[in-house]
Amino acid sequence: MTSEIIEYRHHYIPLTRDQLVDRLQQALKEKRFHHVLRVEQTAIHLAKLNKVDVEKASIAGLCHDYAKQRPDQDFIAEIHQKGLDPDLLNYGNAIWHGIVGAELIKDELGIWDEDILNAVRHHTTGAAVMSKLEQIIYMADYIEPARDFAGVETARQLTESDLGAGVAYQTKHTLEYLIENNKPVYPKTIETYNAWVPAYEGKID
Ligand code: DGI
Ligand code: FE
Ligand code: FE
C-alpha cells in the first residue's frame, strides 16, 4: 500500500501528523499501531471518493483506537467524571474504547472537532445518523487491507460503490456475529441496524 502523508493545516488538533503518529506509537502495541496506520490510509482513500476532508479522515483514522489498550479503570473513571450514560458500565472495552475513548482523545490530544470525535465514538457500534466522515471511519476499520474474513471482499466492493451500502452490510454482519456468539448487544448497535439495514434491503446480499 502506498501511503499518503497529509500535512495538517486546519488546526483540528494542536499537533503535526508526525507528533500524532508518535503519540499513537506510544499508546499502542505494534500490531495495533500498524492497524491504525492502515485505517488512516483507507479512510483517506474513502474521503477522496466521497468528497470528505482528507485531513479529518487522517486524524480520525489514526485516533479511532487510541484508547483500545487502556485499563478498564481509565474508562470507568471517565464515565463517572464526564457523567456519561451509566448503562455503559454494563459493557466493556469493545464498547468503551470508542464511546469513552473519544473523551480521552478530547482530554489528552486536544481534539475538539465534533465530527472527528463522533467518528471515533461511533466506529464500533455505528449510529442511526452518521456523517460521511463517521461512515468512512466505521468502514475503513472494517475493510482495511489486513482484514481477512468471509465477506470482506464483498464489503470492500460495496463500500467502494456506495458508502451507505457498506455501512448496512457491516451492521448486518456484526449483529449476526454478536447473536451467533451470545454476546451482549449495545443498544446503539440495534439503533444502527434499524436505521441502515432495512433501508438497503436487496442491495447488500
Ligand atoms: O477495535 P477494532 O478491533 O479495530 O474494531 P472495532 O472497534 O470495530 O471492534 C470490533 C469488535 O467490537 C468486534 O469484535 C465486534 C464488537 N462489537 C461491535 N458491536 C458490539 C460489539 N461487541 C458487543 N459486545 N456489543 C456490541 O454491540
Ligand atoms: Fe476499535
Ligand atoms: Fe480499529
Q: Which characteristics define this entry?
A:
205 residues; mainly alpha; Hypothetical protein af1432; binds 2'-deoxyguanosine-5'-diphosphate; binds fe (iii) ion
What is the CATH superfamily classification?
A: Hypothetical protein af1432
Termini separation (Å)?
A: 29 Å
- Biggest sheet architecture: none
The CATH architecture assignment turns out to be: Orthogonal Bundle
Assembly state (oligomeric): single chain
Helix count? 11
Order of helices and strands: HHHHHHHHHHH
What is the CATH top level name?
A: Mainly Alpha
Radius of gyration: 16 Å
Q: Which regions contain 5 or more consecutive residues with pLDDT less than 50?
A: none
- Which hetero ligands occur in this complex? 2'-deoxyguanosine-5'-diphosphate, fe (iii) ion
Mean pLDDT: 97
Helix fraction, binned, reads: 55-70%
Query: What is the molecular shape?
Result: globular
- Helix/strand-derived category reads mainly alpha
